[in-house]
TrEMBL record:
Annotated ranges, domain JmjC: 131-298
GO annotation terms (biological process): positive regulation of translational termination
Superkingdom classification of source: Eukaryota
Gene Ontology terms: cellular component: cytoplasm; nucleus
Protein family (similarity comment): Belongs to the JMJD6 family.
Catalytic activity: L-lysyl-[protein] + 2-oxoglutarate + O2 = 4-hydroxy-L-lysyl-[protein] + succinate + CO2
Protein name stated in the entry: 2-oxoglutarate and iron-dependent oxygenase JMJD4
SUPFAM superfamilies: Clavaminate synthase-like (SSF51197)
Native source organism of the sequence: Denticeps clupeoides (denticle herring)
Molecular function GO terms recorded: 2-oxoglutarate-dependent dioxygenase activity; catalytic activity, acting on a protein; metal ion binding; sequence-specific DNA binding
Coiled-coil regions, chain positions: none
Cofactor(s), by name: Fe(2+)
Length: 422
């Protein structure tokens, strides 16, 4: 991040979200043909939370594009089997619906490839249905493969930085699916950003700006499973559908990367046999959206079990437990997440002499590429969220043992670090 961008952002408490009206009235999205500066991407897309598409130039040197794809642009099944033959992988059935998603099973990679070959030979059909290998943590399982490199634009990734630190999970995935496979209507985990690169094949994306999903709920408040289904035209089932804007439709070609902003609901189709790399990620630009999402999720849980409130001394703690089981995180872990992000940036700033460019490798090794201004911006964003949390009644109700640190002390450490590097 350059100094100008930092000076523009450092005094912001609530980050600016530009109007999404242009996406409600047109199908225009920026196409980035050549490299742009990180600061330009930060100002034009991350901060305003706007989508864009990067050309295939940005993935041309990736090993997976060189080795996983045949000369005619098809999946290279032989090479893929050589690399991953016995690996267990998660496979979803696109023809089945279970809790508004596709049910999954774990099968050997070679079994999926055999199915895929037969599916193609049978005219893209199978009695087994349309199977889709998705949410495969290939990067975590095979870090030595170095199949691709995360573009600098998506490198300020608190989500994976945190889960890498605690060595529990990650949000880096490989998807492989035949023509006709698809993902139902959804928004990404924690309302994070996502980026998706087509290694081969083509996808069709239908994207709706934040807020539009409210018009795509049925009379019971449930989100639509398929936004193209004829039943959405039935006003008795979907009373507000006619108020929804037309989706932003993007055809993503082989090699291209799509940036999906925070909180944008979307539905995705594979128009050809397709392989893609997908990351969910968040940072200082959208951590406020994650915090709002967590508050909304807790409120939803509280409404669901409101009738038990006066009969349980630990009702608030139970709400946190249920929330974590549904979303994957509770308030205490969110606070720990912010602490780890903070500690990495304070350590980084301490290792960088004031006014210099640092080339040491901190725990989050991308910080030296983004620079001390970016680290200071991150700290200011964490400070803002911590201040919001300290004023939140549900956060105040956490039992002392839920937190391994004092948020007030962490906030003081942040303010001191920012002052020292001003």
């Amino acid at each position: 991040m350059d100094r100008e961008t930092f000076n523009t952002c450092c005094s912001l408490i609530k980050l600016p979200r530009q109007s999404y009206q242009q996406f409600c009235s047109s199908h225009f999205v920026d196409y980035i043909e050549k490299s742009i500066s990180y600061s330009k991407f930060f100002k034009n897309y991350l901060l305003p939370n706007h989508p864009c598409v990067f050309s295939k130039r940005f993935t041309a040197e990736w090993n997976c594009r060189k080795h996983w794809v045949t000369a005619d642009g098809k999946p290279n099944f032989l090479r893929l089997l050589q690399e991953f033959e016995e690996t267990p992988v998660p496979v979803a059935n696109c023809n089945a619906k279970e809790y508004n998603a596709n049910p999954k099973q774990i099968i050997p990679f070679k079994e999926f490839i055999q199915y895929w070959k037969e599916y193609i030979q049978n005219g893209h059909s199978s009695p087994k249905g349309c199977l889709y290998l998705k949410d495969w943590h290939m990067h975590r399982t095979f870090p030595e493969h170095k199949s691709y490199t995360t573009p600098i634009y998506f490198s300020s990734d608190w989500l994976n930085e945190y889960w890498d630190t605690i060595e529990v999970d990650d949000y880096r995935f490989v998807y492989m699916g035949p023509k006709g496979s698809w993902t139902p209507f959804h928004a990404d985990v924690f309302r994070s950003y996502s980026w998706s690169a087509n290694i081969c094949g083509r996808k069709k994306w239908l994207l709706y700006p934040p807020g539009q999903e409210e018009f795509l709920r049925d009379s019971h408040g449930n989100l639509a499973y398929d936004v193209t289904a004829p039943m959405l035209q039935d006003k008795t089932l979907y009373p507000h559908f006619e108020k929804a804007c037309q989706p932003l439709e993007i055809i993503q070609e082989a090699g291209e990367i799509i940036f999906v902003p925070s909180g944008w609901h979307h539905q995705v189709y594979n128009l050809e046999d397709t392989i893609s790399i997908n990351h969910n990620w968040l940072n200082g630009c959208n951590v406020d959206i994650m915090w709002k999402f967590l508050q909304d999720e807790l409120s939803s849980v509280q409404r669901e079990i409101e009738e038990w409130r006066d009969t349980m001394d630990t009702w608030h703690q139970h709400c946190q437990v249920i929330m974590k089981s549904c979303t994957g995180i509770d308030y205490a872990e969110f606070a720990t997440f912010l602490k780890i992000i903070t500690n990495n940036r304070i350590s980084f700033l301490k290792s960088c002499p004031r006014g210099s460019t640092c080339f040491q490798r901190p725990p989050s090794d991308i910080l030296d590429s983004l620079g001390p201004h970016h680290a200071s911006f991150d700290l200011q964003r964490v400070a803002h969220i911590l201040e919001c949390m300290l004023g939140n009644e549900d956060f105040k109700r956490l039992v002392p043992s839920a937190l391994s640190f004092q948020p007030e002390t962490l906030l003081q450490d942040i303010h001191e670090a920012v002052r020292s590097n001003a």
